[in-house]
């Protein structure tokens, strides 16, 4: 006696009771293609080259805005090659955590330039020249102190770094010359914060 296999469709109650090898329904009808496509409005293709160029420019501008925002936040993938790496981040934090003479260097240079005009009295010209000497000496001294601090902290925290000292020192000095609000990426620490 042989048994004959029958393909019987399980009753509705059996499907809900957990019959194996059967996927339960999603509980709603499948939408028609026209309804499904209407949910995602697609922008029509450009009608001419000028419109295509305008759309491409808008996309590029949006990408640049995202890159600039990422650079300001200090996200590694958006930074320029000169700003990448943990050593450079540490240098930025060291510079941003202190007041520097370099920040006032260009403002003082403008005052000195105006003060050395021959139309001014001799006392103003002499004072401007002395101010130039004082600012230059203070700037050099501050740069030396900053470089020593950078060298000490970077090689303390990253003893196997492949960064060269002169490159890190120049990076620190150039950042110290830039006004705090114009620095890229923006300062992540406040003045006086411990690094």
Short précis:
It contains seven helices and no strands. It is an all-alpha fold and 195 residues long. Helix 4 (86-96) runs parallel beside helix 7, helix 5 (102-115) runs antiparallel to helix 6 (122-157) and helix 6 packs across helix 7 (165-177).
What gyration radius follows from the Cα positions, in whole Å? Answer: 34 Å
Oligomer: single chain
Shape: elongated
Would you list the SSEs in sequence order as H and E?
HHHHHHH
Class by alpha and beta content: mainly alpha
What is the share of helical residues?
55-70%
Mean pLDDT: 81
Q: Outline the low-pLDDT stretches.
A: none
* Amino-to-carboxy terminus distance: 88 Å
Beta-strand content: under 5%
Main sheet properties: none
Q: Could you tell me the number of beta strands?
A: 0
Number of continuous helical runs:
7
For the structure shown, list the relevant keywords:
195 residues; mainly alpha; elongated
Can you offer a commentary on this structure?
- The chain has helices at 12-16, 33-38, 49-73, 86-96, 102-115, 122-157, 165-177.
- Helices cover 56% and strands 0% of the residues.
- The model has no long low-confidence stretch (mean pLDDT 81).
Task: Outline the fold blueprint.
Blueprint: H1 12-16, H2 33-38, H3 49-73, H4 86-96, H5 102-115, H6 122-157, H7 165-177
Helix pairs in contact: 4-6, 4-7, 5-6, 5-7, 6-7
């Amino acid at each position: 006696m042989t048994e004959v296999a029958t393909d019987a469709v399980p009753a509705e109650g059996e499907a809900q009771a957990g019959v194996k090898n059967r996927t339960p329904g999603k509980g709603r009808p499948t939408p028609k293609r026209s309804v499904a496509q209407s949910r995602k409005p697609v922008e029509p293709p450009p009608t001419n080259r000028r419109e295509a160029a305008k759309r491409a420019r808008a996309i590029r501008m949006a990408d640049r805005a995202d890159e600039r925002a990422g650079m300001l936040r200090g996200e590694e993938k958006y930074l320029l090659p000169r700003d990448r790496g943990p050593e450079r981040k540490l240098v930025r934090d060291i510079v941003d955590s202190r007041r520097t003479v370099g920040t006032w260097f260009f403002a003082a240079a403008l005052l000195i330039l105006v003060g050395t005009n021959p139309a001014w009295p001799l006392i103003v010209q002499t004072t401007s020249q002395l101010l130039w000497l004082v600012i230059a000496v203070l700037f050099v001294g501050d740069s030396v102190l900053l470089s020593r601090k950078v060298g000490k902290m970077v090689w303390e925290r990253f003893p196997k770094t492949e960064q060269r000292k002169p490159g890190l020192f120049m990076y620190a000095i150039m950042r110290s010359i830039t006004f705090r609000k114009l620095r890229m990426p923006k300062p992540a620490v406040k003045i006086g914060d411990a690094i």
